[in-house]
C-alpha cells in the first residue's frame, strides 16, 4: 500500500479570465468540502493573470485547495520581456508549477535542457515542479514509448540531486491522449508510471523513487479516473478539459 497522497491538478490552460476564475474556485469550494483533503491534494493551475484572484479567494475562505502556474522562466529576473519569474510565483503563494507540458514542448520548442533549467528555477524558489513527459502517437504505435519517456525524464532531471528529485512531481501525459478524448488504458498508464519510478530509483535512490508522485494526464474525467488512479504507480492526475467543470473536477478529485 502506497503512502503517497494522490494529487489532482487542474490545468486550465489558456481558459477563464480572472472573474471567471473566481467563480470557478467558489463553485469548487462548495463541491469539494474540507473532509476530502485528508485523502487527496487538489490544486488548480490557472493562467498567470488569474493567480492573484485565485489566491484571494483561497486565502480569504481558508480553502485547502492549492494553486500553481502553467510555466515559469528559467531566469530569476532581468531583461526577459514577457517572462514570469519563479520568485514572483512564490511570492503569490503558488505551490506548484507545470514545466515541460507537451503544448510548450511542441508549440514553444522547449527541449529537455529548457525543461531542466525551468525545473531548477522552480526548485530555487521553493515551488514544486510538475515535470511533464509523454510520447506522441507514432512512438506509441512503434512500441518505443517506455524508452522515449525514460529518456525525456532523464534529460529533464539531469544532474539533480536525489533531494531535489524528491521535491518534484512527474506527470506522464501521452500526447495522443491530451485533449483528444482518447484516454490511455489504466494498464498503459501503469506501465509508464512504473517505468518512471524504476528510473527514479536509478537516478536518485529507492526511497526517493518510492516517495515521488507520478501522475497520469490525458482526457481524465470522473468516469475513468478511478480505474487509472487505482493502479499501484499512478498517484493522481493532471487534468485539462475536465478541470474547467467544477462539479466534474470535484467529483473526480473525491474519487481519487
Ligand atoms: C493537460 O492539459 O495536461 C491535459 C491532460 O488535458 P486533457 O485532460 O484535456 O486531455
UniProtKB/TrEMBL annotation:
Substrate binds at residues 11-13, 179, 219, 240-241. InterPro entries: Aldolase_TIM, TIM_sf, TrioseP_Isoase_bac/euk, Triosephosphate_isomerase, Triosephosphate_isomerase_AS. Its main location: cytoplasm. The active site is at 101 (electrophile), 173 (proton acceptor). The keyword Cytoplasm applies. Its EC number is 5.3.1.1. The keyword Isomerase applies. It comes from the Bacteria. HAMAP family: TIM_B. Homodimer. Involved in the gluconeogenesis. Catalyzes stereospecifically the conversion of dihydroxyacetone phosphate (DHAP) to D-glyceraldehyde-3-phosphate (G3P). This is Triosephosphate isomerase.
Amino acid at each position: 500500500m502506497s503512502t503517497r497522497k494522490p494529487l489532482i491538478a487542474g490545468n486550465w490552460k489558456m481558459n477563464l479570465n480572472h472573474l471567471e476564475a473566481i467563480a470557478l474556485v467558489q463553485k469548487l469550494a462548495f463541491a469539494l468540502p474540507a473532509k476530502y483533503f485528508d485523502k487527496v491534494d487538489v490544486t488548480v493551475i490557472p493562467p498567470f493573470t488569474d493567480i492573484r484572484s485565485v489566491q484571494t479567494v483561497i486565502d480569504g475562505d481558508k480553502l485547502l485547495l492549492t494553486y500553481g502556474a502553467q510555466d515559469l522562466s528559467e531566469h530569476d529576473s532581468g531583461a526577459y520581456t514577457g517572462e514570469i519569474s519563479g520568485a514572483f510565483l512564490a511570492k503569490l503563494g503558488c505551490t506548484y508549477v507545470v514545466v515541460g507540458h507537451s503544448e510548450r514542448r511542441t508549440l514553444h520548442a522547449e527541449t529537455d535542457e529548457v525543461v531542466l533549467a525551468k525545473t531548477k528555477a522552480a526548485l530555487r524558489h521553493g515551488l514544486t515542479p510538475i515535470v511533464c513527459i509523454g510520447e506522441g502517437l507514432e512512438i506509441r504505435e512503434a512500441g518505443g514509448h517506455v524508452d522515449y519517456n525514460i529518456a525525456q525524464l532523464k534529460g529533464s532531471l539531469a544532474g539533480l540531486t536525489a533531494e531535489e528529485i524528491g521535491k518534484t512531481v512527474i506527470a506522464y501525459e501521452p500526447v495522443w491522449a491530451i485533449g483528444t478524448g482518447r484516454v490511455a488504458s489504466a494498464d498503459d498508464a501503469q506501465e509508464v508510471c512504473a517505468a518512471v519510478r524504476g528510473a527514479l530509483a536509478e537516478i536518485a535512490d529507492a526511497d526517493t523513487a518510492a516517495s515521488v508522485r507520478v501522475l497520469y494526464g490525458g482526457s481524465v474525467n470522473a468516469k475513468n479516473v478511478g480505474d487509472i488512479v487505482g493502479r499501484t504507480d499512478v498517484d493522481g492526475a493532471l487534468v485539462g478539459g475536465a478541470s474547467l467543470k467544477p462539479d466534474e473536477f470535484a467529483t473526480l478529485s473525491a474519487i481519487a
